[in-house]
Structure formats: structure tokens, C-alpha cells
Amino acid sequence: MSERSALTLSDGVTLCVESWGPAEAQVTVVLMHGWCLHRRTWHNQIAALLRMPRPPRIIAFDARGHGRSETTGLETTTLGQLGNDLAEVLRRLAPHGPVVLAGHSMGGMTIMEYAHGHPDEFAERVAGLLFVSTTAEGTAHTRYGLPPRLAAVMRAGETFGAGVLARSGAWRPHRALIPALRPALRWLLFGDVYEDAALRMTMKSVGRTTLRSIGGFRASIGEQQRLDTLARLGDLPAAVLVGDRDRLTPPPCAEGIADALPGTELTVFPGAGHMLILERHAEVSAALASIVERAGASTPGERHRRAKRARKAGRVDGRAA
């Protein structure tokens, strides 16, 4: 059974938070969903973690403007704000013990913003990372699986449309419109093989996202550059997963993360698209469980030494700049 709660952040926005597993667990796993999605897209991984011999505590929440969380002002539809939200969630709901952070798409970018904006807290707390279908380089590698000229046209149209939606307020897409989006969402987000339930969940998630969030976060997502941040995190259990049919964050995005973050395991899934946590849920669950096990085996002394090295690397980079 899960426990659902409402967490009001310092700026007044209330997040919908759900937790599972024993409160006294050695490791806490925090799951962050993708753009236009919600916390329940991780349902397969949650079930798998709860079947572990020593299940972790699990926390998943809907990002502001998504799912059942409250809407947000246009000025706070940024990845930096999401990184600050994650910091606040951890301080208030998981203030002690090692933490494993797992992020899909925008959720992975949120982890990077947390590491960038709160480096000392990150170094002290985080004992493992899972990046799924995400990027540290904005839309630098995004081609939608199209020839360059067509990709440029599509990006221009997407950018213009996002600007219009960002100014459309807290409305959500009309229910009658969502079925019409099915072919486009299936093409954009899924690979060769998928379950119809996965596509239905994705469509419902989009329907729960405010127009302001659908359009507003687009600019921040496109501009993010955090490879330098990843390079300063030090050696900790981490994995990067991507599908070779991912039209939004293709394999070069994952390769960039793996190259920047020491000791990261990179896995590319043939035939899979952007919704990897639903398309290849068993493999994603296994990768996450492995990281949780490794994080639980690390000692406080190891985590302290890792944090010290990461802070030292950050100071050196700061002087060089």
C-alpha cells in the first residue's frame, strides 16, 4: 500500500507525493518523471523494488504543473526550479540516509539541476543514480529521427507552439483532443514494441498536464547544458539507459552523460523509444534494483570521502574558471 500526501513548497505550490516501503529502510529511492507525464509512469519499477528482499523506501511525486500537483507561474516553469523542488522534497521527506535518484527524461534533467544548484547536499546524500532517456545537452542531439532539414522545420514549429501554449494559462488539454493525438504520441515517444496500456497511460498523463507547463518548460529543456556538472560528481553507482529509436533523447545524449560521469554503465536497447520505463520496464527495474543494492552496500565513510572529492573538484574547477 502507498501513502499519498500533499507537500506545500516554500513558494506556495503544493506537490502530490506518494511513498511506499518501510520508513526505516536503509536506502530511499526518489523517482522523477518526464515532461508532460506523472509519477505513476514508474509503477512497474515501484512494484519491482517492493519485491526486493530488503525493499527501499520509495518516494515519487508529480512535478509542479503536472499530474495532481498544483499549477505554477510561467516564471517558475524552469528546470532550475525543479532542481530546487527536489532539494526541498529531500530535506523534508528524506532528511537522513543514502538516497538513490532516478529520473526519466525531464526527471533526469531535474537531477542534474539539483546537483548543479545544491552541490554540497548532493555530494553528502546521493549514493546512486539512474538516468533513463534523458540528456545533459538540451536539444543538441534531437533530430526526431528525421533528415536535418525536416528536423529543423519541426523544431521551429515545436518552439513556436510551445511559446503559444506557455501563455495559455492553467488549462489542460480537452479530453476530446487527446485521442486525436494518439498517432503523433505513438510515433514520437514509442519504439517498435509497446503495450497498448503504456500508450494509454502516456496519453492520460499528457491530458493532466497544464498547457502552461507543456509549453513553459520547453525553453529550459532546450537550453540546459550540464555535462560539466556531471563530471564533478565523482565515482558513484550510476547507469544510463536509452532506446536506439528514441526520437527526443537519442543515444548520443546518453553517450554524453556516460562519458562525463565516471564509472557510469551505458545500455542501449534495440527497437525501444523514449518511454523506456514502460517499453522495457523489466530491464529498467533490474538496473534500478542493482543500483539500490550497491548504494545500500556503501558505507557512510565511503560516501563522505566521495563527497569530499566532489567538493574538491568543484573548487578546483571554480578557480580555473
Automatic annotation (TrEMBL):
The keyword Oxidoreductase applies. Residues 29-287 form the AB hydrolase-1 domain. Keywords: Hydrolase, Oxidoreductase, Peroxidase. It holds the Pfam family Abhydrolase_6. It comes from Paractinoplanes globisporus. InterPro entries: AB_hydrolase (IPR050471), AB_hydrolase_1 (IPR000073), AB_hydrolase_fold (IPR029058), Epox_hydrolase-like (IPR000639). This is Alpha/beta fold hydrolase. Signal peptide: none annotated. GO terms for molecular function: hydrolase activity. Residues 295-321 are annotated as: Disordered. Residues 303-313 have a biased composition (Basic residues).
